[in-house]
Design goal:
With 185 residues, this protein is mainly α. It has two domains: 114 residues, no CATH class; 62 residues. Helices cover 69% and strands 4% of the residues. A two-stranded antiparallel ribbon has the order 1-2. The termini are far apart.
Length: 185
C-alpha cells in the first residue's frame, strides 16, 4: 500500500523527526492518524513527545502523505467493515434458522424460536439496506416490488396478532378482576 506513495512526496520525512523515525514508521503514524488514533498513540509509535506530533500534523509533508494515503486507508477500512457486516449477517442468519440458545433445566442447550417482532425488524432492516444498494447500483428510485408487498403483509399480520394478544390479555385481566370481586362479596 505504501509502495504507491511517491517516496517521500518530493521531500524527506519532516525535519522535526527525520533522525528518529523511518519512512515506514512515519507512514504507519499517518495511517493511524487517518484512522482516528490519538496523538499519544502516534507519539508512542514514533517514540517522540506528544507535543511534537501535534506540531507535525500541521506540516505540509504530513498533509501531503495523509492526502496520498487517505484513499487507500479508506478502502482498507471499507474492506474491514464489509467483513464485519458479513460476520454479523451470518450471526443473524444463525439466529433466524436456529433461534436463541438457552440452557434447559437438564443442562442441555436448547433453542427457542426468536420472537416474530425480532424477525420482522431484521427483515425490514435488511430489505431497506438491499433496496438502498440496488438503487445505488442501478441508479433508479425506490420501487415497491413483490418483496416489499410481502413484508407489508407480514407486518400487518404481526400487528393483527399483537392486537389480538393484547385484547386476550385485557379479557383475562377483566375476568380475573370479576372473579376477585365475586369472591370478596
Amino acid at each position: 500500500m505504501k509502495d504507491d506513495i511517491p517516496a517521500p512526496l518530493g521531500r524527506e520525512i519532516p525535519a522535526l523527526i527525520r533522525r528518529r523515525v523511518s519512512l515506514e514508521t512515519f507512514y504507519e503514524g499517518v495511517e493511524l492518524f487517518l484512522l482516528g488514533a490519538s496523538f499519544r498513540t502516534i507519539a508512542q509509535l514514533w517514540v517522540v513527545p506528544v507535543h511534537l506530533v501535534q506540531r507535525l500534523v500541521q506540516t505540509r509533508e504530513f498533509s501531503e502523505v495523509a492526502r496520498a494515503l487517505k484513499p487507500q486507508v479508506r478502502a482498507t477500512e471499507s474492506i474491514a467493515l464489509s467483513r464485519l457486516i458479513h460476520q454479523s449477517l451470518d450471526a443473524v442468519t444463525q439466529r433466524l434458522e436456529h433461534g436463541d440458545p438457552y440452557v434447559a433445566a437438564s443442562g442441555e442447550i436448547k433453542f427457542k424460536p426468536i420472537a416474530a417482532k425480532d424477525a420482522a425488524t431484521i427483515a425490514a432492516l435488511l430489505y431497506d439496506r438491499r433496496e438502498k444498494v440496488d438503487r445505488e447500483v442501478e441508479g433508479k428510485a425506490g420501487v415497491v416490488d413483490d418483496d416489499a408487498m410481502h413484508l407489508i403483509e407480514v407486518a400487518a399480520a404481526l400487528d393483527s396478532f399483537r392486537r389480538r394478544r393484547e385484547e386476550r390479555q385485557v379479557i383475562d385481566l377483566t375476568a380475573s378482576v370479576t372473579n376477585d370481586d365475586a369472591q370478596a362479596a
